[in-house]
Amino acid sequence: AAKTGGRGQHKVFHRLLDIAARERVLLLAQLRQALVRNEFLLHYQPRVRPVDGAIDSAEALIRWQHPEHGLLNPGAFIEAAEAGGLIDEIGLWVLDAACAQIAAWRRQGLALGRVSVNVSPRQLASGELVAQVRDTLARHQVPPQALELEVTESLLVGDARAACAQLGELRSWGVTVALDDFGTGYSSMATLRQLPIDVMKIDRAFVTDLGHDPGAMAIASAIVAMARSLRLHLVAEGIETPAQAAILRDMGCDELQGFFYSRPLPPEAFHLLPRHLVPEASPSQWAGLAP
Ligand code: C2E
Ligand code: MG
Ligand code: MG
Ligand code: MG
């Protein structure tokens, strides 16, 4: 009886695997269609300079207007896109859409210092990123200084030399490179020092417990000190409370990003944000703009 039960369980298990596999295939087919049907869009989240509250830059974050499921966050599809070999094409779409938006904003007189775009390690591994960025900037007549690329430590997993060489070339034109989600990876200080980056983004994980956890304070101030000594521009992400904003401002973070200031917004709403978001002001002042 035990044997039959075991086989039965096996069957159920296989059926579940089948379903999971079929769902993955379906998702990939839908993602391919999404590219053709132009169902992706970018939202923009401001980065605020705490010394004067100015919005000097923004991060572009992909969304998918799914025909049945509505507006989806990247958590629902980016991993599948990476695994299914679609991230190069999607990444190129993101680059193009962000540069088109930068150009449109510049024409409308909204000149942000920089807009950052998330780049998957696979895009670097393909070896085509440098040419793609060059062509896209040229097509939209966007100066390289207006673009920032966010990469993660996982780029070191593949051919780290080749990835760093590409980033180095992009930086030589004036494109800046940010290390995203800092603190969640495994880089040693030695590798960190050699990475071709301009900006470090402290992961939200270290921001969340600020204000009530002395351990979190200690780690955050150590990261700030490290960024300082490596002469990196420091951005903290995931700021949700005025206390977190005040602490990170006082520690010397260059820019702050998080729901406290604004959620990621469609470009039309981003354009309507006040040019300065003072840390002390109530977020409800612009909450009405959220989608
Ligand atoms: P990320 O690059 O670390 O982006 C920050 C994420 O944190 C965004 O989630 C943002 O909406 C969210 N966030 C910002 N402030 C707060 C806050 O105060 N509290 C909380 N709880 N969350 C906050 P999102 O847009 O869902 O993106 C998730 C991740 O998906 C991104 O993490 C990035 O790794 C990836 N991603 C987004 N857009 C792209 C893209 O165009 N290409 C690639 N390859 N990956 C992307
Ligand atoms: Mg990012
Ligand atoms: Mg991040
Ligand atoms: Mg992240």
UniProtKB/TrEMBL annotation:
Q: What is this protein called?
A: GGDEF domain-containing protein
Of the intact sequence, the residues represented are 492 to 782 of 782
Q: Which species is this UniProt entry from?
A: Aquabacterium olei
In this protein, which residues make up the domain named EAL?
Answer: 24-278
